Amino acid sequence: MKRLTTNDDIRYDIQAARLPVSYLHILTLVVVIMLQLPTLISYMQASLLALFGMLFIALHWYYNRIGASFYFPVQAVLCMSCATLAANYTVLILMSFGLILMIQLFYETTNPKLYSLYVLCYFAVSTAILSLTHRGEHLLFLLMMLLLMLVLVYLVLAIFHQKDIENKRLEEANNRIAQLTRQTERQRMARDLHDSLIQRLIGANLKLDVVEVHLKKGNYDKAEHVVTVAKEQVEQSIHEARQVVEDLRQSLHSLPFEDRFIEEVEQLGFLLALPVTTSIMIDTALPPQVEEHVLAVVKEALTNTHRHAEATHVTITLLQQRTMYVLVIEDNGIGFYNEQDMTGHYGLLGMQERAAIINGALRIYSQNGVRIELQFPISEGE
Predict the structure, then answer these.
(1) Which CATH number fits domain 257-377: 3.30.565.10, 3.40.190.10, 3.40.50.10490, 3.30.300.30?
(2) 178/34 Cα distance (integer angstroms)
(3) What Å distances lie between residue 102 and 141, 298, 342, CA to CA?
(4) Where do the H-state alpha helices sit in the chain?
(5) Burial zone of 124 (CB within 10 Å; 0-12 exposed, 13-18 middle, 19+ buried)
(6) Positive or negative, the Cα torsion across 141, 143, 146, 148?
(7) What tens digit of pLDDT does each residue of 189-233 get?
(8) What is the pLDDT of residues 347-377, one digit of tens each?
(9) Strand partners, 373
(10) What is the sign of the dihedral through the CA atoms of 295, 299, 302 and 308?
(11) Residue 357 Cα distances to 52, 285, 354, 382, angstroms
């Protein structure tokens, strides 16, 4: 089957896999050791098996923090070492530990031929180990089981990978639709502003010109009348402006937090003439009261960047790490040189107060620009 590929970053979900995979491997080790100790394997052999197995589990736990060039060779050696030490239950280790390696390799390897080569190498080494531990006994049956497992795993992964691609494409399509909807709404609001609010303001301005003419001629009664009419027009304009702002606020609050976050950041960036790139990678929704404080911190940071940083671009990232949210705001401006400069220019007090309200911690760094980090707990307010 042809390996399915996509431009999206679809990867092995270590966050979801940590606990169930660890339970599977620990259970496998316990079964293999308990069924054979002390008649089929020695205590030393069992200790080494447990040690190598726990190392395999520990490395898997930190899979996303270890480079692939180190992770996979080391895990392969540990897997084969455990399989060799497992004596009569080698196939259990190969199927349990090897299964995870094959799944991870599937997501890490974009070349289908290279992945097939990895599978063949794994099968060849497994065949050698099974030949050594079983000395020909039931060897063909065990090899067929292992081969069947590898084929089934590949087929299942290919199906799920295709579904991941379809979900990503559907998500992209929905995002494009939402973006077009927001653009249409902006255009409608722009037309409304031009057709009503701006026209009224232009009319009021022309009336003020007329007032100036009347005053020069001494026609104070006419000037007073024109001022009264102009005042009414300005009041109507203020009312319409408030209505437009209220409509915008309601439309934003009806959006999911991710869309509202991006929309408000884009609008502020547009008003400040400051290009902003926004990225949101969270699985757990923020409580409403936390959302407002996070948005306030972002707006304050963008405003300060516009005023003091002389930056040409800002990157905003909101992501989820275990029990914490992390908000990172980075610019490519001039930064600051000392703590006094930071406090005076970047107005920390307001952002620190917001961070304290949501039990968060705010840090600011300056190196090739300014980096603001806000960490706050996921459980807060839920």
Answers:
(1) 3.30.565.10
(2) 57
(3) 21, 42, 50
(4) 14-36, 43-61, 68-85, 90-108, 112-134, 139-192, 199-217, 220-253, 257-271, 288-304, 339-346, 348-357
(5) exposed
(6) negative
(7) 666 666 666 777 777 788 888 888 888 888 888 888 888 888 887
(8) 678 888 899 999 999 998 887 789 999 999 9
(9) 328, 363
(10) negative
(11) 46, 18, 5, 14
pTM surpassing 0.70? no
Q: Distance between CA 39 and CA 50 in Å, rounded?
A: 17
* 339-347: long-range pairs with CB below 8 Å, 24+: 342/366, 345/304, 345/307, 345/308, 346/304, 346/308, 346/370, 347/300, 347/304
Structure-token pair, residue 195: 């057709």
Amino acid at 303: T
What's the CA angle centered on 183, arms 178 and 187, to 5 degrees? 145
Per-residue exposure over 195-215, b if at least 16 CB sit within 10 Å of its own CB, e if not: ebbeebbeebeebeebbeebe
Cα(98)–Cα(150) distance, rounded to whole angstroms? 9
Fill in the amino acid letter for 358: I
